[in-house]
Amino acid sequence: ESDTASEISFQFNRHKKSPSTGSHSSDMASVSSVSGSVLSVYSGDFGSVDAQGMVEFALDYDEKNREFQVHVSQCKDLAVVDEKKGRSDPYVKTYLLPDKARMGKRKTSVKKRTVNPIYNEVLRYKIEKMVLLIQKLNLSVWHNDPLGRNSFLGEIEIDLASWDWSNRKLNWYPLKPRSLSAVNGVDHRGVMSLSIKYVPPGSLGKRPKNPPSGEVHIWVKDVKDLLQLRPSGVDSFVKCYVLPDTSKKSYQKTRVIKRDTNPVFNHTIVYDGFHTEDLKDACVELTVWDHEKLTNHFLGGIRLGLGTGLSYGISVDWMDSTQEEVAFWQEMMLAANEWIEGLLPLRSL
């Protein structure tokens, strides 16, 4: 792809507010869908009870095999999820943060009908020590529900840079409620510099209907302070969708900038097919990825929209813009034909 303007014709499916007709089913599926790669990584667990109890575990790094090991021993005095049956079916899950996408989760087996489960399992990560030391370990306990609505029972988060690696003994740690960073997605992933502009239909030049439909222009300038996932640096690029459309028509990306945690993209994308009323129901999703041969790893993103939770009258997860993102989008809506500049923090979406 070049760094000059990329123009994409974009047509929205406009949905009636009333779901009374049977023909809406396929449209609703397309509207409520989100970029699959992001959804698969960040789809969450659901219910929760008050955190209580303790977990016993030990940490070690195997220098020979370059392997980080989490020895999960047991838990005690966990919260009861099903009070009628006095039952919890707990398991332990770990992530290396902030990089959920790259390392993936590890989890123990499920122990049924107990608030004092014994695991004696080792969760392993193949990772270089220098990369490990810029991570945090998030260890959480969950109740396993057959329908997938798992309940959070408590967690502990450890900064591995300050961990005493000579301590290989099993120790007890109190389980805590979900951290504010986990609840609000507040973790530093970098900052994107960009400008956006809305060109209403027929607002350019003397000719009528120029442009024939509205256009949204997105100028991705640069990103600063990206996460460095490996010693060689980050090979990053930006993907763009205009939700609810996740088709190839909507998809655009920048070129890859290699070995740079402060990449400059200077890439402009133009989407036409916008009517002014679409700006209330659409959302521009910009995500930054680390490129590798086998797979790309999610680094962070932003969603520009009104953050109402609704798109064409349908409830959707992705209409979740932060206050900063909403203010940026609203400023564009109020200032037709003007570039609006912004500096927005990347988040985990």
UniProtKB/TrEMBL annotation:
InterPro entries: C2_dom (IPR000008), C2_domain_sf (IPR035892), SYTL1-5_C2B (IPR043567). Its main location: membrane. One of its GO terms (molecular function) is neurexin family protein binding. It holds the Pfam family C2. CDD domains: C2A_SLP-1_2 (cd08393), C2B_SLP_1-2-3-4 (cd04020). GO terms for biological process: exocytosis. One of its GO terms (cellular component) is plasma membrane. It is found in: Cell membrane. Gene3D superfamilies: C2 domain (2.60.40.150). SUPFAM superfamilies: C2 domain (Calcium/lipid-binding domain, CaLB). Residues 1-29 are annotated as: Disordered. It comes from the Eukaryota. Keywords: Cell membrane, Exocytosis, Membrane, Repeat. Residues 1-12 have a biased composition (Polar residues). Residues 51-173, 196-319 form the C2 domain. This is Synaptotagmin-like protein 2. It comes from Chaetops frenatus (Rufous rock-jumper).
